[in-house]
């Protein structure tokens, strides 16, 4: 198989030379786009949109029709995995995700099993194949999953949380039970990501959105080793091409060296760290993805361009090894024109420098 016509994203991750810095945005298909809201309305709900491969394909392509992005990301959610494990995912309007059956009882935790991706998550593997056909080798498709720790937070709390009371109580009183959930979830995520790769995902990203809520010691025990286990068991090559992996721990700036050690090809950075400093710490071992503050997109075009150039300048000359992105998902309140300014600035400025 050949690389996509535009392979700058893959080249940057694999540290091959590129003629400009590639860019894509976390949550690039989302509520800031009126066409997304329209398709979501036709689907009936966010979850029905995720579970319909053709509609998921349609919204995956929407940001690429508007902007000159260098990668597509599968439209789905990290919580499809716990849903397939039987926890009963639903979304309460304006309240975010919820589980009907959060994990609290020891016997339920003992019974937890790894779902078969081609059965319970068939709508995702079918969606990946459909998106690949629709992309027709234009840009690479990124597959993704949540980290075991981040998924476990939702599985135990049953909803979004700021305190993580139930997870942390279990962590400090019954670490054996938490390790059991994490081990099963790591196995589920590995099988799920490998099924996405077999179905056509050309790179994969692990979202550890809540790893940064842990102490350094707890991160080293409860989040990092499970991501390491996943990365070690991912299919490394498919159709004759390397399939790079990216690990994103939000709030993980203090632990970059340890993250670089787990064998991933790229590290996703949130906006709290200077990307130049991150590069000096780990840049030769892994590629870096990030890290503009998503709130910059609320500012006028001149400020967006200036802040975008600041990130590119900070990463420094030699555009390879950098995938431009936001430091977290794009806000639903983002003006769509702001994204155009960002993408154009990344391409034009990185070509010059
Ligand atoms: O990047 C992309 O475009 C791919 C799609 C994607 C979504 N969620 C779509 C989505 C990805 C990669 C995710 C990952 C995800 N989901 C994470 C990790 C990244 C992060 O943000 O930290 C997490 C923690 C979730 C769980 C989740 N899903 C929450 C907390 C919410 C509610 C927040 C909100 O914005 O309402 C969701 C819903 C969700 N996932 C939306 C989208 C586009 C909005 C749903 C809608 O259309 O109403």
Identify the bound ligands.
coproporphyrinogen III
Give the strand line-up of the largest sheet. Answer: 1-4-5-8-9-10-11
The beta-strand count equals: 11
Question: In percent, how helical is the residue content?
Answer: 40-55%
Overall pLDDT confidence: 96
Level-1 CATH class name: Alpha Beta
Structural class, by secondary structure, is: alpha/beta
Q: How many domains in all?
A: 1
- CATH topology title: TIM Barrel
Short note summarizing the structure:
By secondary structure, this protein is α/β, with parallel strands linked by helices. Helix content is 49%, strand content 13%.
Q: Can you give keywords for this protein?
A:
7-stranded parallel β-sheet; TIM Barrel; two-stranded antiparallel sheet; 11 strands; binds coproporphyrinogen III; single chain; 353 residues; alpha/beta
Folded structure, characterized:
A hairpin with a 2-residue loop joins strand 6 (237-238) and strand 7 (241-242). The strands form three sheets. The protein has a seven-stranded parallel beta sheet with strand order 1-4-5-8-9-10-11. The chain has a two-stranded antiparallel sheet with strand order 2-3. A two-stranded antiparallel ribbon has the order 6-7. The protein has helices spanning 8-13, 34-43, 46-50, 53-66, 80-87, 106-111, 117-120, 122-135, 148-157, 165-173, 175-199, 216-232, 256-260, 275-282, 301-315, 336-352, and strands at residues 72-73, 89-92, 96-99, 141-146, 203-208, 237-238, 241-242, 245-249, 266-268, 287-292, 322-326. It contains 16 helices and eleven strands. It has a single domain, classed as TIM Barrel. Bound molecules: coproporphyrinogen III. Coproporphyrinogen III is lined by residues 26-31, 40, 46, 73, 75, 77-79, 96-97, 144, 160, 207, 209, 329. Residues 26-31, 40, 46, 73, 75, 77-79, 96-97, 144, 160, 207, 209, 329 line the site of coproporphyrinogen III.
């Amino acid at each position: 198989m050949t690389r996509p016509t535009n392979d700058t994203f893959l080249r940057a991750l694999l540290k091959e030379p590129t003629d400009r810095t590639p860019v894509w945005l976390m949550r690039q298909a989302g509520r800031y786009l009126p066409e997304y809201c329209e398709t979501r309305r036709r689907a009936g709900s966010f979850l029905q949109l995720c579970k319909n491969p053709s509609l998921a394909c349609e919204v995956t392509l929407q940001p690429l029709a508007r902007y000159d992005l260098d990668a597509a990301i599968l439209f789905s959610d990290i919580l499809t995995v716990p849903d397939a494990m039987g926890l009963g995912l639903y979304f309460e309007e304006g309240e975010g995700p919820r589980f009907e059956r959060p994990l609290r009882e020891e016997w339920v935790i003992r019974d937890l099993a790894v779902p078969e991706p081609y059965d319970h998550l068939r709508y995702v593997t079918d969606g990946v194949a459909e998106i690949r056909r629709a992309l027709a080798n234009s840009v690479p498709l990124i597959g993704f999953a949540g980290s075991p720790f981040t998924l476990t937070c939702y599985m135990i709390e049953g909803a979004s949380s700021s305190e993580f009371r139930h997870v942390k109580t279990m962590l400090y009183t019954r670490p054996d039970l938490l390790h059991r959930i994490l081990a099963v979830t790591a196995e589920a995520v590995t099988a799920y990501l490998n099924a996405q790769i077999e179905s056509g995902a050309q790179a994969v990203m692990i979202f550890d959105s809540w790893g940064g809520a842990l102490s350094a010691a707890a991160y080293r025990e409860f989040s990092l080793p499970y991501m390491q286990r996943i990365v070690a068991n991912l299919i490394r090559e498919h159709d004759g091409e390397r399939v790079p992996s990216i690990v994103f721990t939000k709030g993980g700036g203090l632990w970059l060296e340890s993250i670089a050690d787990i064998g991933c090809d790229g590290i996703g950075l949130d906006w709290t760290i200077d990307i130049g400093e991150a590069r000096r710490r780990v840049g030769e071992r892994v590629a870096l993805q990030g890290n503009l503050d998503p709130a910059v997109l609320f500012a006028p075009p001149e400020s967006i361009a200036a802040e975008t150039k600041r990130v590119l300048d900070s990463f420094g000359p030699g555009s390879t090894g950098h995938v431009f992105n936001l430091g977290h998902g794009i806000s639903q309140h983002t003006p769509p024109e702001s994204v155009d300014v960002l993408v154009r600035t990344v391409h034009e400025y990185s070509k010059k420098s």
